[in-house]
Amino acid sequence: MNAVDAVALGRSRLKVSKLCFGTAYLGAPSLKISPDEGGRVLVEAHKLGVTFWDTSDDYGSHAHIASALRHIPREKVVISTKTSAKNGREAAESLQRSLRELGTDYVDIFFLHAVESDWIDGCHKLLTELHELTTAGTVKAIGLTTHSVAVGRKASEFEQLDVLMTICCGADQATIDRFPEHIPLEDGTIEQMLEAAELAHSRGIGIVAMKVLGCSAPPLVDDYRASIEAVTKLRFVDAIVIGMRSLCEVQKNVEAVMSR
User: Fold this and answer.
1) Deepest in the core among 6, 84, 119, 158, taking most CB within 10 A?
2) Quick one: 6-258 is in which CATH superfamily?
């Protein structure tokens, strides 16, 4: 298994690269990366086999992906985006806006973004509404992202859920407690989060690991290869998403994933 192998993402029926290109840095105002420049990085990443790209309606990177899609057939890449919508109307508006900005007529995964423990019931209700989008053809799979163990545990019960993106990293709890701003667990422990992800995976939900490098937490970045390997070797993790901003970073992360 390496970065360019296509892996099945749970019951979603999607095939994705083990390494997912997180595009938040491309849209960060402070970095001033133009859509054309970011698009070129994405195209080069695609040549290296990174065919899974993640964005969000608040990342500012939809235009960068749209730029890349002018050079790559749409069906050759899996694109996920996210919404912080709390009801069906808001979600539909967010999706249509995202489709326009991305320059595509569908997204592969539509995530509810950063679901917190006090919104589990509301999330479940909205997932049921969003599931209808999969029959309309504008969305292929429905997912949620979370930093909460409580949400992660409950997610395994959601029949409408295809993909779960959650914190999975090799840091011990002491390290996480030292760097809460880098590895922001809302509740519970990292061991409990990994157990929740494993349970969800056992029930057919695809697992995408985030915060693998803990938003540049020093202990994880200092030995990034070991940090990446600690997560990629977990049998219930289908893919890992890492934020990247340059071809050099893409190459480094591809090599790290392939070296495991």
Assistant:
1) 158
2) NADP-dependent oxidoreductase domain (3.20.20.100)
